[in-house]
Amino acid sequence: MDILFTLSGLLRKRLRYTVIVSNYSTFFKQVQKTPDDIFIYHGESKLSYKEVFESSLRLANHLHQQGISKDTRVVVMLPNIPEMIFTWLALSRLEAMMIPVNVHYKSLALRYIIDDSSASAIIYHAENEEDVISATSILNSCTTFIGMGGCDYEKTTDMMEYRNKPPFGGPYHPDAGDTNVMFYSGAATGPAKYAKYSNRMIARSTNDFLSMIPFRPADIIFSPYPLTHFLAYVAVLNGAVNAGASIVLCDPLNEKEFRKTMEAAQPTVMVAEPAYIGFLANQKDKDYLPASLQYAITGGGRLKSNYQEAFTALYHIPVYKIYGMVEAGPLLTVNTNADKPASIGVPLSSVSISLRNGRQTAGDEQIGEICVTSNILTEDLKKLLHDKLDEGWYRTGDLGRLDMDGYLYFVDRKAYVINVRGFNVYPEQIESVLVKHPKVQDAVVVGVPLDAGSESIHAHIIPEQGKRPEEKELFDYLEQELPRYQIPEKFIFVNHFPRSATGKVVRQALK
Questions:
Q1: What's the pTM value of the predicted model, to 2 decimals?
Q2: What CATH topology corresponds to 49-173?
Q3: Which CATH architecture has domain 417-510?
Q4: Fold for the domain defined by 211-413
Q5: What is the dihedral of CA 322, 324, 330, 332, to 10 degrees?
Q6: Residue 8 pLDDT greater than 60, yes or no
Q7: Cβ neighbours of residue 363 under 8 Å, at least 6 residues apart?
Q8: What is the model's pLDDT at position 192?
Q9: CB-based burial label for 482 (10 Å; 0-12, 13-18, 19+)
């Protein structure tokens, strides 16, 4: 029986495009596995490679019967459960285009993505049914609904019927240039942006990532990161299959499920968003994570230095960093250098980085806008990004600096820079000082416009429990660390920060 060996796993360090193998033995010889080796850990259950591939082919048959075939655009809105992986593999087998969507998106954001992408099908969980119905109620393009978890919508077909289907055995002639996935940005600094990535582009990005952080067949990868996120899609899903590794799935906020899964899986690698690293750093329990973990990987946002320091001190494992963005990589840099923990790393082999101020190149240790060029930037992406391309370089809107060794450091978003009487003030610099105060748990600094064109600095602070600092105490503390013009004029104490569906702080809501 033919089985699917999905996109990036096919390449094994070289750009050769083959996505089907004729029998189990060929595939498992490539990844040093046997069919009975565990691919997915979920709670106390374990699914072998053979079980996962067979489930994906049965699901492919079910989806094909619902009209999903080559180039069909399919929105996928599933949590981190085995069916998410089955769906990813099944859509690859059908040569359909996957459009991953975060399960925390509400109806307006979901409607925008469905409409903008011209998706004709959606696969979702019952927990999101209300938003799915609301999002599609005024759209005509989306006609196929496939749900799981007890969906009630009359137009929805039960996804779990796949278990009674035979494996899909239809024609399979993919091309390296076919679109594999369409990512949408989280719209943290403006309208959501999209980028389509071909099989070849995803394969190249995955292989470049694995050349920097080489997963092994023995690795067991725990990812609380949403698998619908571009970073997890490349580094976890594609990375694990490429290496023949295993994946651990669970709800990390369900402590009972988390404990059972960790005990059963004993993961060696964790790929997590910065907010989860911060959560773990605040546990104050060195045994909260299993001793089997060897390192953590984070990206998709800024990991504050106080959280990184607390995490490494508590669990005694390094934190590697990935920097990327939906529209230009999607992965750009990786840092595995423990001697430079604040850096976001060096470029992947297919990426070049330049720091620029206008058309002038910034010198060593000077701050400039991070500009990117890559052989992954196809003509399609270049057309999409035309207003931000300068002599072939994509202006990311992020500010950074390079040290003498070529390591990149993220400074701030260009849009977040505060103008104080003609001086540029970077919120990140103030925040990194504030969070080191013993009575400050977290801080977000924003600029509030003044009539004269200048801005006033406001610091929003989540205090440590039972330790709220006085404003004068914070002022005196900052005066020892920062120039006077960088000290906030107002301190606002809050219980939480407004966050987007992807977990990033919505700074506009704080102004």
A1: 0.87
A2: Rossmann fold (3.40.50)
A3: 2-Layer Sandwich (3.30)
A4: Rossmann fold (3.40.50)
A5: -70
A6: no
A7: none
A8: 67
A9: middle
